[in-house]
Design brief:
mainly beta, 5-stranded mixed β-sheet, single chain, about 375 residues, 8-stranded antiparallel β-sheet
Length: about 375
């Protein structure tokens, strides 16, 4: 089974605060969902996030890596992931939504801290810049799309335009003390993009890729009398290892040689075909050698070390950042299952979904009649440019 991640082409935050409706932040390291108090009143003004991934990369991973039929098999998943940085005064239960943007927009290179304020990209009012001044539609929306905010909220109209309806939205709920990382299942939404990319389908079957908009529900945004807090996330411009990503997960496992799998007993597990240094464009096939730690004594003309051993079909791999211990690829019972052939156990790693110039560590998990065992033998590799 496999994980494959791509990183954004562009992203930015749109602010409805009266002091920032014409401010572009396309060059910021941070994206945020926030309700800021007004400078001259007690209203709280919401922000929204725009994020877009390249057509070419989406098309390549679907057609060349996963396969179009596999991508649409009802099992393969695609998740939009953003990683939290500083959070403040978050309410105990909070929902966010993402939709497909229905108009094109420019990222710009502005920053929140710029003086004077930059307006060379998307803002709450404009989808390009303050010179061309192409406004987000606030009425007479295209078929199947909407935008703006409700009347009577005291907020200026704008802030994007997006498709609505079945298969055009995804929602995530955050509970008190839970992780505030965004992890939205956008499989159905990306299938709309792929239908347009591969077949030229138009709404409602397919739509052009203008990216995603992430926001709070209308009822939260329009409640300007209070704030839900501040939710901040690393952007594509971050200098950390946590940029947003679009993560494709699918089943590529093959199980043809596990009738003699190790269903009990202590095992030795060895990783081989690990070059320890991989180019960021490599697709690495890594193998493991499984054998009994205490083999039965037998008379043989060959070494026990040469015998091919197998985990059960309930065996998985995980990848962690060797320095931060962050789970880059978690143990996933659906999508990190190892395969088996006549040479033993194996799995694939796609290095361009990992941050270059970092060291990573591989772990294994095996379930059999004795329970679940984690094998952490300090196997490292580095991804280089």
């Amino acid at each position: 089974m496999a994980y494959y991640s791509i990183f954004p082409e562009i992203d930015t935050t749109l602010y409805s605060h009266p002091d920032r409706t014409s401010m572009n932040t396309g060059g910021d390291e941070i994206l945020e969902l926030v309700q800021e108090r007004g400078s001259t009143n007690q209203l709280h003004y919401p922000s929204r996030i725009l994020i877009k991934f390249k057509n070419e990369e989406i098309k390549s991973v679907i057609s060349n890596t996963i396969g179009s039929s596999k991508f649409n098999d009802g099992i393969t998943k695609t998740n939009l992931q953003l990683f939290a940085t500083e959070q403040k005064n978050i309410t105990s239960i909070l929902n966010i939504q993402t939709f497909l943007v229905s108009q094109s927009w420019h990222e710009g290179s502005g920053r929140y801290s710029n003086l004077p304020t930059s307006s060379n990209g998307a803002t709450w009012i404009y989808r390009d810049n303050n010179t061309t001044q192409t406004q987000w539609r606030t009425a007479s929306f295209a078929p199947g799309s909407t935008g703006s905010v409700g009347t009577g909220s005291g907020l200026e109209k704008g802030g994007g335009e997006w498709y609505t309806g079945s298969c055009f939205t995804a929602t995530q709920q955050f509970l008190n003390n839970a992780s505030l990382d965004i992890d939205l299942d956008v499989t159905c939404l990306v299938q709309k993009h792929s239908a347009s990319l591969f077949a030229g389908d138009t709404y409602p079957t397919g739509v052009d890729n203008n990216g995603f908009i992430i926001k709070h529900p209308d009822s939260v945004e329009e409640n300007t009398s209070s704030s839900f807090g501040e939710m901040q996330y690393f952007s594509v411009d971050t200098h950390t290892i946590y940029p947003p990503k679009l993560c494709f997960k699918w089943d590529d496992s093959v199980h043809t040689k596990q009738s003699t799998s190790k269903k009990s007993g202590s095992l030795n597990v060895t990783l081989y075909k690990n070059k320890q240094e991989f180019n960021q464009n490599d697709e690495a096939l890594l193998r493991i050698h499984v054998r009994d730690k205490y083999p039965n004594r037998t008379f043989s003309t060959t070494s026990n070390y040469l015998n091919v051993g197998y985990f059960t079909t309930s065996s998985f791999y995980s990848v962690r950042d060797a320095y931060t211990e962050e789970e880059v690829i978690p143990f996933d019972d659906d999508f990190t299952k190892m395969s088996a052939d006549d040479k033993g156990m194996y799995f694939k790693l796609y290095m361009n979904g990992l941050q270059p110039e970092r060291y990573y560590r591989i772990l294994f998990k095996h379930k059999n009649n004795d329970g679940t065992t984690i094998y952490d033998n300090d196997y490292h590799f580095k991804v280089v440019r």
